[in-house]
Amino acid sequence: MVTTPARPTPRGKAPEPNRNRRDVQHRPSGTGSTPVRPAWDTPARPLPRTSAAARDGSSPAGASRTGTGRSGLRRFFTEFWPRIEGSNRPSNGSSYYLILGTTLALTSIGLMMVLSSSAVESISQGVPPYDLFVRESIFGVVGVVLMLILSRFSVRRLKRLAWPAIMLSIVLLALVFSPIGKAVNGNRNWIEVGGFSAQPSEAAKLALALWMATVLARKGPLVRLAKHSVIPVLFPMTTIVAGLVVLGHDLGTTVIILCIVAAGLYFAGAPGKLFIGFTILGAVGAVVMALTSGNRLSRLSGWLGNCDDGNDLCFQSQNGIYALASGGWWGVGLGQGRQKWNWIPEAHNDFIFAIIGEEFGLLGSLVVVLLYGVLAVAIFRVIVRHNDPFIRIVCGCIMTWIIGQAFVNIAMVTGLLPVIGVPLPLISYGGTALTLVLMGVGVVLSFARTSPASEKAVA
Q1: Domain count, the chain
Q2: Is 90 exceeded by the pLDDT of residue 138?
Q3: 396: which residues sit within 8 A by CB, 6+ positions away?
Q4: In-domain check, residue 130
C-alpha cells in the first residue's frame, strides 16, 4: 500500500495530508460550508488583448463610442423589420388587440364624422339631423357583433363557408338587374327590399377572399403553374363576379375586386409572369371602360385639368381640396367645417376624408392614416406568423381590401387619382360596407387568436 506523503508545514502545526482534486469536488454535503476550490485547480484567465494605442494611452475616447454608435445603428436597421412583423419573438396576442383596437377606433371616428358631415344636409332636406347617424350606428353595432362571432370560428368552419358564400354573392349580384335592383348616382349596384337596401358587391369581396383561399390552398404547389392559377380563380370565378359589377357601371368597386384577386394570387405563390399579363389586361380594361362612358370620361378629363368647360367637372374635387387647405394644422374644430354646407357632394360618403382634414387639420388626418398603417402591420404580423396557406391568403386579401381601398379613397380626395366613387373603409357612410368590413376583420381576428402550433388541430 502506497501512502501520500505529508506536506511540510510550519513549525508547531500538525502535518496535513495532501488532498487531490476528487476529494475537494466530492466533499460530503451537509457540513454547512461551501467547498473551496484549490488554487492549483483554478485555470489562469487570459489577459484582454489591447492595441498598442490603448497600451500607451493614446487611443481617443470617441473612437469606441463611434464604433458602438455605428454598430447600434446597424443593429437598429437590421432588427427594424423583424420587430415590425414580430417574427423575432414569440406570439403574445398583441396582434389581436392591435387589430381590434384600431378597428374600433376607426369605426368610432367614422360614426362621429358621419354625424358631423351629414347633419347639415339632412336639415336642409327636411330630414332629422340624426337620421343617417342612427342608421350607421345600428349597422356598426350589428357589424361588431358579427365580427366577434366570426373571431371564434375555426379554419375548418371558414372553409365550409367559402362555396356557399361565393354562390350567394353571385346570386345577389345578379339580383341587381332584377326589379328589386336600384341605381344610385349612375351605378346600378344596389338591391332594395321593403325599404332596406344593400350593396351585394361588398359581400362579394369577402366571399371571394374566402373562396380563393380555399381553392388555392387545396392546390398547394400547383399554384406555381400558370394554368392552375388562372383556372378556376380568374376563369370563370373572377370573370363572373367582376363582370356583374362592371355591368352595374361600378368601376371603383371593380378595381378593388381585381386588387383582392391579385393579392390572393400573390400570397398563394402564383408565377410573376401572370401578374404582368394581369396588370396589362386590367389597365386596358379600365381605359376601355373610361372611354365608353361619358360620366367616367368627364371625371378623367377633370382630373387631367380640363375644368373650364362650364360643366363643373372639378366641383367636387376642388371643394375637397379647399376643405383640406382650410383645415390647416389643427383644423377648424369638430362640427365647424364649412365645405359640408352643400359645397361637397357626398360629404358623408366618398369625400368624408376632406371633412376630417377640415375639422381636425393635418394632424387629425395623419392620425387616421396612422391607424390604417397600424392595422396593416398587425394583419401582416398574422400572415407572417402562420404557415397555413389558407390563413395567409385570406389575411392578405382582407388587408389589401381595407388598406387598398383606403389608399384609393385618400388619393382620390387629395387629387392623386380621379374620382371613381370608392368609400373610405370603416369611416364613410354605408351600412353594408361597414358591416362587411367588420366581418372581414372578424375573420382575421379568428387567426390572430390562434397560435401557429395549433393550425393542424383546427385545419
Answers
A1: 1
A2: yes
A3: 263, 264, 266, 267, 383
A4: yes
Place of cell 383582392: 260
How far apart are alpha carbons 459 and 160 in whole angstroms? 11
CB within 8 Å of 95: residues ≥ 6 apart:
86, 378, 379, 381, 382, 385, 448
Average pLDDT over residues 63-72: 58
The answer to whether the CB of 201 falls within 8 A of the CB of 431 is no
Residue 7 inside a domain? The answer is: no
State yes or no: cis peptide before 345, omega within 30 of 0. Answer: no
**Three-class SS string for 369-432?**
HHHHHHHHHHHHHHHHHCCCHHHHHHHHHHHHHHHHHHHHHHHHHCCCCCCCCCCCCCCCCCHH
In a domain, 5, yes or no: no
| Residues 313, 4: Cα–Cα separation, whole Å | 110
Residue whose grid cell is 386596358: 284
pLDDT of 293: 75
Q: Which pTM was predicted?
A: 0.81
Q: Is residue 69 in a domain? A: no
pLDDT of residue 57: 46
